[in-house]
Amino acid sequence: MEKVELILLGITAIWGFTFPAMKVSLDYVSPILFLVYRFGLASFFMLLIFRSKVLKMSTVKEGFVLGMTLFIGHGSQIIGLNYTSASNSAFITSLYVVFTPFIAYFVLNDRLKRRDFFSLGIAVTGLYLISGATLHFNYGDLLTILCAVSFAFQIVLVQKFGEKDFLSLAFWQIFWNFVFSTFYALNIEGFAFPREVIPWLGIIYTGVFATVVGFTLQVRYQKETKAHKAALIYSAEPIFGHISSFLIIGELLSLKGYLGAFLILGAIWNEIRNERG
User: Fold this and answer.
1) The pLDDT value given to residue 213
2) What does the buried/exposed string (b/e) look like for 251-270 if buried means 16 or more CB atoms within 10 Å of the residue's CB?
3) Alpha-carbon distance 29 to 68, whole Å?
């Protein structure tokens, strides 16, 4: 595995470990307020480290659009964690790999393949099983599906805006996410300052490592490898998510849940196995 791919794998592991970190933090702070602290801290760190390099106005509009997709994605994901397990959230979130070709068809006029529809069918079956083998998905599962769709939009739009400066684009999408989260939290959830150590550990981990390091390196290095290789690496995120959920909070899936997770990973693999850049 080449250096670039190792970097992307490291990012994937960092993102996977956010699921139990967020799950535990939600016992102490409301969901969107958690995002306020996470992305506010990330914005501050990027300004502190890179200063005026991240403030290029040429990427403000693109960053606004990306920030909106990230806000919807992270917002629905973290609210959904109140109603579903961290492992379920990790596996369902990974469906962005399956949804991406359909979004790209409408946004970028990319051609849909027979494999895309087959992958979607496998993924829906996996969702059916991981949600408890019922046609009535719980509220958290449904929100996490919205999260996956939003992240698929973000991936496609990053491709659309690929020629822009990666550092400022990464900053503006993080900053606008912070702005949207703050507006929502102040009007819906209210403001509170966590006094316990545990939520701050989650905020620092997700803010510094998963956001500043993760998003900046993703935008910087993803373009140096082929798309199908990057997608294959990112598809390992739910595996890291479940491993971390087991190690940190002792969370396990049911037998049907593991079968559903296997089918979701199978759908992702089927989606990317024949890609050639």
Assistant:
1) 95
2) bebeeebbbbbebbbebbeb
3) 22
